[in-house]
Structure formats: structure tokens, C-alpha cells
Write a structure and sequence with these properties.
It contains five helices and seven strands. By secondary structure, the chain is an alpha/beta fold. It is globular, with a radius of gyration of 13 Å.
Length: 128
């Protein structure tokens, strides 16, 4: 079973994504406090991280860059999501995520992107 760490400071979004992914057969670890992400990565060892851009006091883009620049975590795919930022702003980062989805998102689009990333297929930056 593939393990997915979902990081969002909105509990409703977090619960919705967790429920959908668990129904889809994934082992899901929700995290609403981004400052604990590295401890959670070490404990949970996720196959994918779904990461919101706006996380209260912490910018998800900074976390993404830290994950992608660290030797132990750089291979973990990251799917970023945001309702405030667009694909262009996220793609141009120094350490860009593996894929991106805009909020609000269609569940089938989210699941398709997740399946591609956990299956190690090429990312598709389609923001439908």
C-alpha cells in the first residue's frame, strides 16, 4: 500500500483528501502543522507528499525546496496545491514540485495526478 503524507492547515480540506485517498486504497498520514513535517517524513516514510502552498506561518514553497534539496528526501515526489497561487508561480521555484493542482480541485484530477506520481510516471501539469 502506497503511503501519502498530506499537509494542509485547513482541517476540512485535510479530512476530505484523507477520506478520498483512503477509499482509493492509500495509507494516509494527515498533518495540519507543517513545522513537524520533517519528523513526520522520517517516521512515516511517504511515497508521496501532497503539500499546500499556504500553510499559515510557513510557506509550502519553502518546505518543498527544503525537501527537494535534502539528500534523504529529494526523491520523494511532491504534489503541491493552492487556491491562491498558480502553476507558473510554483513551477518557477528553484526546487519545483513534481506536479501541481489548483484549489478547488476535482477529485478525479487529484487522484489521477497522485496515481501518476506514486507510479513514477511523468508529471502532467494540467491544471483542470
Amino acid at each position: 500500500m502506497k503511503k501519502i503524507l498530506v499537509v494542509d492547515d485547513d482541517d476540512d480540506v485535510l479530512e476530505t483528501i484523507q477520506l478520498i485517498l483512503e477509499i482509493g486504497g492509500y495509507d494516509v498520514e494527515p498533518l495540519n502543522e507543517a513545522e513537524f513535517i520533517f519528523e513526520r517524513i522520517a517516521e512515516f516514510n511517504p511515497d508521496l507528499i501532497v503539500l499546500d502552498v499556504v500553510l499559515g506561518k510557513i510557506d509550502g514553497r519553502v518546505i518543498c525546496s527544503q525537501i527537494k534539496s535534502h539528500e534523504d528526501t529529494k526523491q520523494v515526489p511532491i504534489l503541491m496545491m493552492s487556491g491562491l497561487y498558480d502553476l507558473k508561480e510554483v513551477q518557477d521555484m528553484e526546487c519545483a514540485p513534481d506536479d501541481f493542482v489548483s484549489k478547488p480541485f476535482k477529485m478525479d484530477v487529484l487522484l489521477e495526478k497522485i496515481e501518476k506520481l506514486v507510479s513514477k510516471k511523468s508529471p502532467n501539469y494540467n491544471v483542470n
